[in-house]
Specification:
This protein is of the alpha+beta class. The chain has eight helices and 22 strands. The protein has helices spanning about 40-50, 90-95, 105-120, 135-150, 165-185, 195-200, 220-225, 230-235, and strands spanning about 5-15, 15-25, 30-35, 55-60, 65, 75-80, 155-160, 185-190, 205-210, 210-215, 240-250, 250-255, 260-265, 275-280, 285-290, 295-305, 310-315, 320-325, 335-340, 350, 355-360, 360-365. Helix 3 packs across helix 4 (about 135-150).
């Protein structure tokens, strides 16, 4: 196992900054998920950890030892990619063996390791099959066995589930988490799927435009987003954002937006008066209600039935897209008008200028 530290790591391609001043520590035995949209720098970061991509500046340390300039084979890491990358002319057993071909181990030790790795990922019964005789999930399991047979200090997984169907992703997601906890090896998992990140990671590092927006546990990322981007990127369905102002009326704070006058409660009640704020609220914290000054008028844009619940997608008066989670029995026609109430005790306030939270009576600076 390894503790991995990235100290002020920068990667440029010509004039383009792929990774910017990245400071991050991945604890020994931790499963850290790097989450972000395509092009945010998460795969480049992983490739620098692996030694596949040179670092422009900064340092990468494994257990306190600087490995910045070491080649991949000297870092004792193993990688699993989106494609299983198996040799098509070799059986599953021979594919796994290729990771140990130059290990210097005895034949008996190699056979024991292959058997243990195959048993760990439940492919022992597939060892004599060729890759074209395996399903996509089975090939990905063999690729995982090929990685863990080396008994590396760190696993690096670059979107290994994205090419699989939804049901198989669900199964392998749980298997990878279970595997990581059993072998207790440091694991870095790259994905653009925030559901994968939330369900798998001990911690999540959210990246954007080459920088680290926030790092924390799934609960911290979800409940206490540190930027407007994180608030909107993490969560299904995504968070709703409403532009408005905060005023003081008889010692109470109100969120004002057109005819909407919404008393602020909970932590949001400490928001200082401001001409421009963004109120952020989860779709599960909104309800359908009757017209009034505390109700937000909306026009139905689309309805998504999910079986146990329904997501109503609406347009607001200034064309902000708003989502509300309601019961499965809900029915309405596209274009109809409805009214929504907001639970402001669970709302967050953001400064539109800095895109940072407004908390405890102050605006946080970037």
């Amino acid at each position: 196992m390894a503790k991995i530290e990235l100290n002020n790591v920068v990667k440029t391609f010509g004039t383009q900054h792929a990774v910017k001043n990245l400071d991050m520590t991945i604890e020994d035995g931790e499963l850290l998920v790097l989450l972000g949209p395509s092009g945010c720098g998460k795969s480049t970061t992983m490739n620098m950890i692996a030694g596949l991509t040179d670092v422009t500046s900064g340092h990468i340390l494994f257990d306190g030892h600087d490995v910045t300039t070491l080649p991949p084979h000297a870092r004792n890491i193993a990688m699993v990619f989106q494609s299983s990358l198996l040799y098509p002319h070799l059986s599953a057993r021979r594919n796994i063996y290729m990771s140990l071909k130059r290990s210097g181990l005895s034949r008996s030790d190699i056979e024991a390791r292959i058997a243990k790795a195959a048993e760990t990922v439940n492919v022992a019964h597939l060892l004599d099959k060729m890759p074209n005789q395996l399903s996509g999930g089975e090939r990905q399991r063999v690729a995982t066995a090929k990685a863990i047979v080396r008994e590396p200090d760190c696993f690096l997984l670059d979107e290994p589930l994205s090419a699989l169907d939804a049901a198989l992703r669900l199964t392998l997601r749980a298997e990878l988490v279970n595997l990581q906890k059993r072998i207790e090896t440091t694991m870095v998992f790259v994905t653009h799927d925030q559901v994968e990140a939330m369900t798998m990671g001990d911690r999540i590092g959210v990246m954007r435009d080459g920088g680290l927006e926030q790092i924390g546990t799934p609960t911290e990322i979800y409940n206490r987003p540190e930027t407007l981007f994180v608030a909107g990127f993490v969560g299904t369905p995504p968070m709703n954002f409403l532009k408005g102002a905060v005023i003081d009326e008889a010692g109470k704070r109100l969120f004002v937006r057109g005819a909407l006058r919404l008393p602020l409660t909970g932590e949001s009640a400490g928001t200082p008066p401001a001409d421009q704020v963004i109120l952020a609220v989860r779709p599960h914290r909104m309800t359908l209600t009757e017209p009034g000054e505390q109700a937000l008028p909306l026009k139905v844009y689309a309805i998504e039935h999910l079986g146990n619940e329904t997501i109503v997608v609406c347009d607001s008066d200034d064309h902000d897209r708003i989502r509300i989670v309601v019961g499965s029995e809900f029915a309405a026609s596209v274009g109809s008008t409805l009214y929504a109430g907001l639970d402001t005790s669970h709302a967050l306030m953001f400064d539109p200028a800095t895109e940072r939270p407004i908390r405890a009576g102050k605006r946080e600076v970037a």
